[in-house]
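Human:
Focus on the backbone:
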Amino acid sequence: MPLRTHAVMAYAELHCLTNYSFLRGASHPEEVVARAAELGYTALAVTDECSVAGVVKAHQAAKEHALKLLVGSEFRLEDGITLVLLAPDRIAYGQLCTLITLGRRRSEKGSYRLALPDLERGLDRCLALWIPDHRRPREENHRVGERLADAFPDRLWIALELFREGDDLDKVAELLMLSIRLDVPLVAAGDVHLHDPSRKPLQD
C-alpha cells in the first residue's frame, strides 16, 4: 500500500527585513535568501525599511539558490500607517526608489518622513501590502483602507501577520471583517527579522 502524501501549499514570504534595516533586522540578505530556499519557499521579498540597499546581495544569493526574489520596501508613515510596497517590474522599481528618495531628503541622515498623501500618486505600478493595527478603532482603519484602496486599485492586500502574542484570534477576526468591508483580500506574511533563532539575542 503506497504511503499517503500531504500536499504542501506553496508559500512566498512578502515581508522580510535584513540587517540593512538598522536596529531591526538581524540577518544578512544572503542568509535570509538561503533559509527561504531551504524551507522550500517559492519566492522571497526583501523589504527593508525605506531602503533597497540589501537587494544586490539578495539578488546574488537568489541566483545561487534558484529562488525568485521580489524587491520591495517597508514604510512606517507619520499617519501611523505601515505599508510594504513591492515592485513587480523596472518601472515600479523606479517609482519605489523615487518614494524612498523623497522620504530621505525630508529628514536627517538615517531617518525618513512620509505621509499617506505621498503614496496617493506616482506609484501606479507598485503592489501594496497594508499592515493595519487591529487595535485601532474599526472606523479609523476603515477610512485608511478606503484611501489605500483608491490609491492602489486592485493592487492592495491586507497583510495578516500572526506572532502567537495571545491576541491572534482577535486579530484574525478584526482583519477578516476589514477585508470583507473593504473588499480587499487578505494575504499571509511573516514580518521576518532573522533567518535563525540563534540571532534572536542580537535582534532583541
Notes: The chain has six helices and seven strands.
